[in-house]
Design a protein that fits this description.
CATH topology of the largest domain in chain A: Alpha-Beta Plaits
Number of helices of chain B: 24
CATH class of the largest domain in chain A: Alpha Beta
Distance between the termini of chain B: 72 Å
Strand content of chain A: 35-45%
Oligomer: heterodimer
Shape of chain A: elongated
Structural class of chain A: alpha+beta
Number of domains of chain B: 3
Structural class of chain B: alpha/beta
Helix content of chain B: 25-40%
Low-confidence stretches of chain B: none
CATH superfamily of the largest domain in chain A: ACT domain
Largest sheet of chain B: 6 strands, parallel
Largest interface: A-B, 22 and 20 residues
CATH class of the largest domain in chain B: Alpha Beta
Strand content of chain B: 5-15%
Distance between the termini of chain A: 17 Å
Number of domains of chain A: 2
Chain lengths: ~170, ~575
């Protein structure tokens, strides 16, 4: 557990200000958030935050314990690589004069990036994949002229497979 | 009934006897409900900061939740300092603030401010009540969160229209907070491991913090210490948590603690931290703190474990049962006489490094004020001390002797100047039988002296002893020691204001002491008068507070009082 970056999945009550309490705690304790994605869950009264944290200055354990002290936080769980799946959605607007279109579309196909929109001189790709896939695709299209980029930040879940369940993801208190 | 009535019925249901506050526009309905009748006593402060510190003093003296009430906007922001103070010192506090009408929230209305937003970093939790039907549950939850787990402040912000809205009131028996699960007991295997570590130690020490007082676990602490004959150091927040006259008490560690106490803590081979948080004022340079010691850390707050110093044996749980179980486990393991040599060593350090200060026969020495107060109150079990923050606070820590928990009330973590006077008023409300003495500095006193009016008119008499050196003394000490004697913006003067006259203007007793001869008589008179009294003790401004561990230095590198330095100063 010496990796510097970790992904944490946090279930919190869907109440006004709950997200602010989490991010404020990170800010005041000087913890670094690399990405944060928040959205609804299977329960209407519960939201899930997926956080990517940089633990250079603070051990993960301390971050998790501080998070657990927040009244709105229900559960804090690390998404351990190999025992969880992580995805990210990106929209990339790439310069695409007619001469470059074919090559760009071929690149997109390799990464299973869908063409979400097509204009006279640009393409908007839609790519869902592991954050590493998104990084790779971003680098590939960048030389063509990456005009705009938006990424959701990673979201994740523990694996469905029985083996992964048996080894139980660490529940942190 | 209205929401305002519901707040009062909830306070009554919680057993609240006294609240501290100041009315204003957005909290008018609540004060109107008070006028219609309640069993709750309201103490009218002169400034909301005063009300907040009074609620803190009440909580610390009584062990119950303190309640402060303020209006929206500036009323609420004036509570921010007490809330931050309560957060740092884990004082259970419920703050109720009025808010502008719901329809005006977000419009920059008159006296609107986002107090729930402002206080997020310094509360355990807060609620902006948007529907009157939520009020009973929110108040139940507020009291529950404030006093369970690690104690601390919460805030309930109630818009004026919610106070005016009607509801069918019923106070819930249970609170539903799925995300709030403080630990209920310590892990028995961890406690056994702790007992093993302590039993094997040659130089064990109990490093006790304010958590022991909040946990009401001082009897269990004493039983544990006596079972295995382990010496005890108590932090500023734990002064009185273990009797200071007890043979096992080894003083207070930290920046201005006696050298022998710091040595005892730093040369131990096993440190049992109990409700303490390895604050920088105790550890000094962390990497040099108690090198080689094995750390057993008992705390209700898991996040304190290994936050500053790695805990070799952590035990997370409520301290009362944890300490009792540890004493039982240790009773079965501890070897009689094992710590005798260690205790003798500490006793020798104590002989070797007593507290010292100059007695040159010139101006009244501040330490003399504290010694006289200690002697005048010796053997009394009805004295509660409060302090401000600075040199006088450290001298109070060094020279006063407290044998009972909740008898020394001070601002530790936040270091809030001006805490002493209002905290004393709150303590007096909690302990009407007690003689409450605020040891204050002249700088601190001027920050909250307006609350003398509260003490006099609410008939909550307190004795204020101002250790008046005419300076922001601790700043002066740092400028002298660490800024090459470049004194900058610290001179308050001994004489402006004339504190005795100011006291008399408020209807209190005012006394001035300018020499050692006048000291004992004036202090005795103030302690006996039964009224609010202010004793202005004009002391030598050159006196520094020693010993001292400079900020960032190793705790073993203590600077002590040096008589030759005094001689130099006199020659100038």
């Amino acid at each position: 557990m010496s990796a510097r970056r970790h992904t944490i999945s946090v279930l919190l009550e869907n109440k006004p200000g709950a997200l602010t309490r989490v991010t404020s705690m990170f800010a005041r304790r000087g913890y670094n958030i690399e990405s944060l994605a928040v959205g609804p869950t299977e329960r209407h009264d519960v939201s899930r935050i997926t956080l990517r944290v940089d633990c250079e200055n603070q051990p993960l354990e301390q971050i998790e314990k501080q998070m657990h002290k927040l009244v709105n936080v229900l559960r804090v769980q690390e998404l351990v690589p190999g025992e969880s799946i992580e995805r990210e959605l990106a929209l990339l607007k790439v310069a695409a004069p007619p001469s470059a279109r074919a090559e760009l579309m071929a690149l997109g196909e390799v990464f299973n990036a869908r063409v979400a929109d097509l204009g006279p001189d640009s393409i908007v790709f839609e790519l869902t994949g592991s954050p590493e896939d998104v990084d790779a695709f971003e680098e590939l299209v960048r030389p063509h002229g990456l005009r705009e980029l938006v990424r959701t930040g990673r979201i994740g879940l523990t694996r469905a497979a029985r083996g992964a369940n048996r080894s139980r993801p660490k529940v942190l208190v | 009934m209205t929401g305002a009535d519901a707040i009062l019925r909830a306070l009554e249901a919680e057993g609240v006897e006294v609240v501290f506050g100041l009315p204003g526009g957005s909290i008018l309905p609540l004060y109107d409900a008070m006028a219609r009748g309640t069993t709750v006593r309201h103490v009218l402060a002169r400034h909301e900061q005063g009300a907040g510190h009074m609620a803190e003093g009440y909580a610390r003296a009584s062990g119950r939740v303190g309640v402060a009430i303020a209006t929206s906007g500036p009323g609420a922001t004036n509570l921010v300092t007490p809330i931050a103070d309560a957060w740092m010192d884990s004082t259970p506090l419920v703050c109720i603030t009025g808010q502008v009408r719901s329809s005006l929230i977000g419009t920059d209305a008159f006296q609107e401010c986002d107090i729930t937003g402002i206080t997020i970093p310094i509360v355990k939790h807060s609620w902006l009540v948007q529907d009157v039907e939520e009020l009973p549950h929110v108040l139940k939850a507020a009291f529950h969160v404030a006093r369970t787990g690690r104690c601390g402040p919460v805030l309930v912000d109630v818009p004026r229209d919610v106070q005016e809205a009607e509801l069918d009131f019923s106070y819930p028996d249970e609170v539903s907070l799925p995300g709030w699960k403080p630990p209920r007991r310590g892990n028995s295997r961890q406690i056994a491991a702790a007992a093993q570590a302590v039993a094997a130690a040659e130089r064990p020490i109990l490093y006790v913090g304010g958590g022991v007082v909040n946990a009401d676990a001082t009897a269990e602490l004493r039983a544990l210490a006596e079972t295995a004959r382990i010496p005890v150091v108590t932090t500023l927040m734990a002064k009185g948590a273990f009797p200071e006259s007890h043979e096992l008490h080894a003083g207070s560690p930290g920046m201005h603690g006696p050298k022998w106490s710091n040595w005892a803590l730093n040369k131990a081979d096993v440190i049992v931290a109990v409700g303490a948080r390895f604050d920088d004022r105790v550890t000094g340079k962390v990497s040099a703190f108690a090198p080689g010691a094995l750390v057993v850390h008992l705390d209700i707050d898991a996040a304190e474990i290994s936050k500053i110093r790695h805990a070799d044996v952590p035990v997370v749980g409520p301290l009362k049962p944890v300490l009792a179980e540890l004493a039982r486990e240790l009773g079965a393991r501890a070897l009689p006489g094992r710590t005798d040599a260690w205790l003798a060593q500490i006793a020798q350090w104590r002989e070797q490094f007593p507290l010292r200060y100059g007695r040159d026969g010139g101006q009244l020495k501040p330490q003399r004020v504290l010694e006289t107060l200690r002697d005048l109150t010796a053997g009394r079990d009805d004295v509660v001390w409060t302090t401000g923050v600075g040199q006088h606070q450290m001298w109070a820590m060094q020279y006063l002797e407290c044998d009972r928990p909740r008898s020394f009330i001070t601002s530790g973590g936040l270091g809030t100047m001006g805490y002493g006077v209002p905290a004393a008023i709150g303590a007096k409300a909690a302990r009407p039988d007690a003689t409450v003495v605020c040891v204050d500095g002249d700088g601190c006193f001027q920050m909250t002296s307006q609350e003398l009016a509260t003490a006099v008119l609410e008939e909550l008499p307190i004795v204020v002893v101002i250790v008046n050196n005419g300076y922001l003394g601790m700043v002066r000490q740092w400028q002298d020691m660490f800024f090459e004697e470049r004194f900058s913006q610290i001179h308050l003067t001994h004489a402006v204001p004339d504190y005795a006259q100011l006291a008399r203007a408020y209807g209190a007793v005012g006394l001035t002491v300018e020499s050692e001869e006048e000291l004992e008589g004036a202090l005795a008179e103030a302690l006996a008068c039964g009224r609010t009294a202010v004793v202005d003790c004009r002391v030598d401004p050159r006196e520094h507070c020693f010993p001292m561990i400079p900020a960032g230095a190793a705790a073993l590198d203590v600077i002590e009082y040096a008589p030759e330095r005094d001689a130099e100063a006199l020659a100038l």
